[in-house]
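Reopening closed ticket. The problem is back. First fold of the pair:
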Amino acid sequence: MNSFTIRAARPHADETTALLDWSVGHLDELERWAIRRQVPVPGPILAGIRRRYAEDGGRAPESVPPVWDREPDSVPAGQVPEAALLAALERDLLLYAASLAEGRIDDLTVTTVPGVPAAFYAPQSRRLFLPDWLAEAVSGRLFAPTALFPEPPSATVSWLFFQSLVLTPPSLPSGPAAHVLGIRESD
């Protein structure tokens, strides 16, 4: 049987800046990501990235260090505010364990980062960076309970991983993790 493990980590102080720098160089992909997933990126975050994009002439800063490749500052998954979300993500990704195993992914470290515009995946370190505003907004239900459906079905949160933007060098295009890594989203 395949297995899959989720770990939690605190963000390092410079990771928010590095993720925002990366976003400036990939603004088009970032905007397509939000539109296709109907995810309302908070206006101040997107405005800040667009302002820096205009100031930098559409280029990522030359010195975007790959800070996401270093060892994460791990914490027990049950001790983070988004513990329920991480448990749901682990449960949902376990359903795709065979596909993930083909991509040599059997664990994932999730870091909730304040002020970033999208979900990002760093394949070298198997880290998923979730924006704090998105982690708080993800619902575990498809719709609210009604008289007809007092217990509505659960929604999957696996898209947070499969549709996260892969952190790539400035010279390479990015895209959703499932596409860039060649992982099937169904088993």
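Second fold of the pair, where the issue appears:
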Amino acid sequence: MLKRMQQQKNYQISIKSIPAFQVISYRKKLKTFYHEGLFWEEFIEQLKDQKIAYPSDPKKSLTIFHDQEYLEEGVDVELAILLGRKTEVQPPLKCRQLTAIKFVATLFVKGNYHQLPEAYEAFAQWLELHPEFTMEKAARQICHVGPEHTDNSEDYLTEIQIPLNSLTLTQREELSSK
């Protein structure tokens, strides 16, 4: 266990851009992060009730965390599936377009979900070393391999996407003088 934790300290963070895309989503406040699995079950039931197929490709579903800081309770979470086109849905589901993001920091977490806070901490440390960026919007997570794919939580693969704002030299100087 200790060996795995030591290896996980070296998260590879890369920058990419993400195009705009249409989603069907369901957003609400959860008691804690640990209630996300139950929320996914509720979302999938809503999709079934509205005769909307849940995508088999794990890259076509994501979680968006709207809180700008870490919260233990009252977590603002939005679940979404990607679509090729706009679709009519009934509440509580919504069809909307997620905007394109020019700069996104991405990192992959192999293993169980208990490692996710450590990965976010690694991102915060990376951000301190890269003053040309600030965190811009809510973070997203894509579960490439999760409990619906395997019984072994050590095989889970989660992609964390954190939108960034690229600062100009003048903006960086203003921030550092505060």
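Update: turned out to be a display glitch only; the data is intact. Confidence is low (pLDDT under 50) at residues 1-8. Residues 36-49 form the longest helix (14 residues). Please close again.
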